[in-house]
Amino acid sequence: METQQLIQENILDQDFKTKYKTNLNGVKNEEEFFCIRCKQPRISKINYRYSQKTYLWCFILCFLTVLGGLIPFYIKKCQSGTHYCPECFTEIGETE
């Protein structure tokens, strides 16, 4: 009886893996995925951080206006982000 239950759980796991992504590289928004560590479908969280792109835009905008150099630090598109599982904090992917 336990064997049948384990087989059913494995089938469920296989179904989840076909429905949900397991890697979110290049995805810019929070998205549903299958966490391999938790073995559950979850909605990712994104942790943004300053990247080379942020500092490059800061440098360019500083030539136009001094305060304009601060703009890239408040725009999410100028920052890079890391998708992670909200339960086990496993890294799932990177935004571009």
Written overview of the protein:
- With 96 residues, this protein is an alpha+beta fold.
- It contains 2 helices and 5 strands.
- A 3-stranded antiparallel β-sheet has the order 3-4-5. Strands 1-2 form a two-stranded antiparallel sheet.
- A hairpin with a 4-residue loop joins β1 (32-35) and β2 (40-43).
- The radius of gyration is 19 Å and the shape is rod-shaped.
- It starts with a helix and ends with a strand.
- Residues 6-12 have low confidence and may be disordered.
Physical arrangement of strands within the biggest beta sheet? 3-4-5
Q: Mind telling me the C-alpha Rg?
A: 19 Å
> How many strand elements?
5
H/E element order: HEEEHEE
Tally of helical runs: 2
Strand content: 25-35%
Mean pLDDT: 80
Class per helix and strand makeup: alpha+beta
End-to-end distance = 48 Å
Range of helix content: 25-40%
Which shape, going by the Cα principal axes? rod-shaped
Strand count, sense and barrel status of the largest sheet are: 3 strands, antiparallel
Unreliable sequence segments: 6-12
